[in-house]
Write a structure and sequence with these properties.
Order of helices and strands: EHEHHEHEHHHHEHEEEEEEEHEHHE
Radius of gyration: 24 Å
Strand content: 15-25%
Number of strands: 14
Structural class: alpha/beta
CATH superfamily of the largest domain: Glutamate synthase, alpha subunit, C-terminal domain
Distance between the termini: 49 Å
Number of helices: 12
Helix content: 25-40%
Largest sheet: 10 strands, mixed
Strand order of the largest sheet: 5-6-7-8-9-10-11-12-14-13
Length: 459
């Protein structure tokens, strides 16, 4: 769970730890990809040191520190940053901007415009051809970081980072600064945390829902069941990396899923939920399929906000509507949903999205790739579009064929009455859709939906 460094972050981290998160990622105000507005980069968040110290101290004081790993980032550049973060309680450190610079990034601050001049943050094939970075350059960068860390550990008389983790008593304020800087009180940052009188060991009797269900079982979910499917996906990837053959599997659920249902899933895994799901459904999924069936709620929310954020592949079929920020930064997934709130398809770079119902304001803002289908007139969609050069147009023959295939898959997966009505009226219904597409290639689904019902061919 990623948390931005700010006052009160410790309280939030305690709740995240109690919810069985494996890692809490603390992000500082520095660094960033350059995709954010300048005001956000300069004015949002606090230094990572303050956030890390507050989280570490709060978790230790409440007997929760052993439940999670702490990862931190925010402009890390050298081995000194790693050693300092470890002394303040970090288990892992993240390098982003500096590594990208090592691979050729020139920090043009236009990652979201699909115009990256060195071919890193773009789907444009002509621009991607300019990318010259190599895996060896990344490896070399981290070798230098590791060497710097070892040199600093040797100077401290330590043989590993484990020996200095949480040892904030080894740090002191600088004495070579201006006189007024000496007045800064660092005692709360550099003190050791107060130990909890309670046990700091995870309860082994707290199983994760992914450990409870098998391919032939149906498990009822509660809002406390978060990131359902992520561990299964991890097992699939691990097995494949070990050279094992993994058979495709389907997991079935009912009830109300907590946050991040189907986040990070991969090829070979299909999740089906008869019920509803909270925010972040399908976040960063790279393959597989997600089906959410919420009968009787065609115009009511069935999944929450920021669903399929940063998805890179796979497919999803949702009856009912999605909340705000559907498919933001989608770069490869195929998604069909029966309505969406504000900011749908924002910064989308590839993939395909079909919204067969109402859509909120600021749709397709900054969209630079892929394609989106909307059940609306050109005038209706124009009234909801965000800042974009794209303009809706009627479907041509190829777009009509692709949309029909997506709706067939949706009907087969969900049995949606709304989609069945559209397909029955095809091709007349196709005239009710408009199409947004910047002309970039569209990624095909990596795991087609398994047909459950037959659909007649269009007449």
């Amino acid at each position: 769970m990623k948390l931005v460094s700010q006052a009160g972050i410790g309280y939030v981290a305690s709740g995240v730890a109690k919810a069985n998160a494996d890692v809490i990622h603390i992000s500082g105000h520095d660094g960033g990809t350059g995709a954010s507005p300048l005001g956000s980069i300069k004015s949002a968040g606090l230094p990572w040191e303050l956030g890390l110290v507050e989280v570490h101290h709060t978790l230790v004081a409440n007997g929760l520190r052993s439940r999670v790993k702490l990862r931190v980032d925010g402009g890390f550049k050298t081995g000194r940053d790693v050693v300092l973060a470890t002394m303040l309680g970090a288990d892992m450190c993240g390098f982003g901007t500096t590594l990208l610079v090592a691979l050729g990034c020139i920090y043009a601050r236009q990652c979201h415009k699909n115009t990256c001049p060195v071919g890193i943050a773009t789907q444009d094939l002509a621009l991607r051809a300019k990318y010259k970075g190599t895996a060896e350059e990344a490896e070399t960068f981290f070798h230098f970081i590791a060497a710097d860390v070892r040199r600093r550990l040797a100077a401290l008389g330590a043989s590993s980072l484990d020996e200095i983790r949480g040892r904030s008593d080894l740090l002191r304020g600088r004495a070579d600064l201006a006189e007024r800087d000496h007045e800064i009180d660092l005692s709360e940052v550099l003190r050791l945390p107060e130990r909890s009188p309670f046990s700091d060991v995870r309860n082994a009797d707290e199983p994760h829902v992914d450990d409870m269900c098998g391919p032939d079982e149906v498990v009822r979910l509660r809002p406390a069941d978060r990131a359902v499917g992520a561990r299964i996906a991890h097992g699939i990837v691990t097995a494949r990396n070990n050279g094992e053959t993994v058979q495709p599997q389907t997991r079935c659920y009912t009830g109300s899923a907590g946050q991040s249902f189907g986040a990070f899933i991969t090829d070979g895994l299909r999740l089906e939920l008869d019920g509803e799901a909270n925010d972040y459904v399908g976040k960063s999924m790279e393959g597989g399929a997600i089906v959410v069936r919420t009968p009787g709620l065609a115009d009511e929310p069935s999944i929450g906000n920021a669903c399929f954020y940063g998805a890179r592949g796979g497919s999803a079929y949702i009856t009912g509507t999605a909340g705000e920020r559907l498919a933001v930064r989608n770069s490869g997934a195929r998604i069909v949903v029966e309505g969406a709130g504000a900011h749908a398809c924002e910064y989308m770079t590839a993939g395909a999205v079909a919204i067969i119902g109402p859509v909120g304001r600021n749709a397709a803002s900054g969209m630079s790739g892929g394609e989106a289908f909307f059940l609306a007139t050109e005038a209706e969609l124009n009234a909801h579009l965000g800042p974009t050069e794209l303009r809706p147009r009627a479907l041509d023959a190829e777009a009509t064929s692709r949309l029909y295939a997506m709706l067939e898959e949706h009907l087969a997966a969900t049995g949606s009455p709304r989609v069945e009505e559209l397909l029955t009226d095809w091709p007349g219904a196709a005239a009710r859709f408009v199409h947004l597409a910047p002309g970039l290639p569209v990624i095909a689904p990596t795991l087609p939906a398994e047909p459950a019902v037959s659909v007649p061919s269009p007449r």
